[in-house]
Structures are given as structure tokens and as C-alpha cells.
């Protein structure tokens, strides 16, 4: 349960971008002491009915970075998303930066390599990414020392990233009234998710926490910023000392009711390749639909 020596006196500016199709919030995080920045969880738009890609969400982020005169150091994926396609390679092509994800991507690639019957040319060693983070690894955005914490449960490769006094939850916790992420995808585990969340909750109370998704429960306006203290006190799934057994029971029952995300099939095939769309023998971008596998 060791936690890094976080830098609570560093207060990076955080700009959010909301993707309404997948209810994803992407972030640009700026080093307070330089013009460097990082992107957390960028989206590439995909219309499933027509099989057509578009880049409005990514272009909005690119325009912001250019307008602010920032240098992009990192493009972080908190995990292999199942609900949207990653915009990382499109942004990297325009602005540079390194694409990083958790080292357990290898497990996720192995699992979905089988489900999608990928050939031997699909590497399962994470080599599609520029960096694979281990638990507790640090890296820099400009002068700012940042940390990656391994937080499995939703998926085996999930990580929470800490940049100064701001933590990026990925799919672990949602807003306090939204609870927690599901744990029923292949490789998911509700008990592991509980343990990961306990680790997050032991970060400093005043640390800002930015969530990856919000669905506006009860009709409230979409929100994405909370604090560790607010989560510990009031998160509807884990707040106020909820036990591991109670959480696992609740999570398992709830997950059994949830439909698969609309874009899970295209998202996984693209995101296990660091956001690159697979190609057929003729070299055309093409996706599979495995039947009765998910
Ligand atoms: Fe996710």
C-alpha cells in the first residue's frame, strides 16, 4: 500500500473536455513552472453505423494546446478504454509527445488478442506504446514530477496518475454520487477494485480528483472534479467505511444489470494497439465483430 511522495504544493492548471457520445472527460494538465503539458485520455470519434472516424474531440484539444502555446510531453491512457476509441496517435502526429499506459497492458492484449483472434503479427508486449508504467513509477511533465499508481479491478492495466495536487482517477471512482466503475469486463475483479480504491482514498484529503466519466446521475449537470476527502466521506459505493464484502456484493449485482458499452467492440481492437486501427490484408482499416464472445 505504499504511496509516492506527492507534491501537494504544485497546483497544475487542468482544462477539461467532455465527449458527449461516451460521457468521457479528457484533460490537458499544465506544469505550473513551464509550458509543458500532458493529455489524459483523449477521444477519437467513431460512428458505428457508418464505420466512420472523425476527430472533432481531438481537434478541440489540439487547438487548445496550440492556442496556449504549450508543449505536449505526454499522452496518457489511464487504461484500455472499452467505451471510446483513443485519440492518442492522431494527436501525437500533430503535436508529438509520448504515449504511455500501464505495463499490464500485456495481460489485456493477451486476453483480447484471443477474443478477437488476432494473428501473430499483433504483438502482446505493449510495444505499440512509447512507455509502459510500473506501479509507483515517476515521470516528468516539464519540471513537474508525476506518478503512476497501479489500480487494477476495472481492468488489469488501470492506473491512477498523480500530477502535483491533482489525481486522475481513470475508471476507478466516479463522482461521489456516481460511485465506482464496473468490474465485469474480462480481467476485471470487484475485490481488486475495492483494494485499489482504498489505496486512492489514502491519498491526501485535499488532493483534487478528476474522473474519466460522468453520467449526471439523477439528472444533475455533468461534473468531473472532486477531492479525495469528498470521496472518502460520501462516495455512494465505497464512502464512509463500506466493507470489502459489501462492495463486492453490490458491484457484482449491479454489473450483472449493465449492458455492454456501445463502442466496446471497436474500442478494444483500437485501444490495445495504442489507438491505431487494425488493417486487413489489403491494408485497409478494418474491424472485426466476434459473435457471442463478450
Ligand atoms: Fe474504462
From TrEMBL:
Metallo-beta-lactamase domain location: 23-213
Presence of the UniProt keyword Lipid biosynthesis in the record: no
GO biological process terms on file: glutathione metabolic process; hydrogen sulfide metabolic process
InterPro entries: Metallo-B-lactamas, Mito_Persulfide_Diox, POD-like_MBL-fold, RibonucZ/Hydroxyglut_hydro
Entry keywords, A to Z: Metal-binding
Single GO molecular function: metal ion binding
Pfam families from the UniProt entry: Lactamase_B
Record flagged with keyword Endoplasmic reticulum: no
PANTHER family: PERSULFIDE DIOXYGENASE ETHE1, PERSULFIDE DIOXYGENASE ETHE1, MITOCHONDRIAL
UniProt name for this protein: Metallo-beta-lactamase domain-containing protein
Organism: Roseobacter cerasinus
Lineage of origin: Bacteria, Pseudomonadati, Pseudomonadota, Alphaproteobacteria, Rhodobacterales
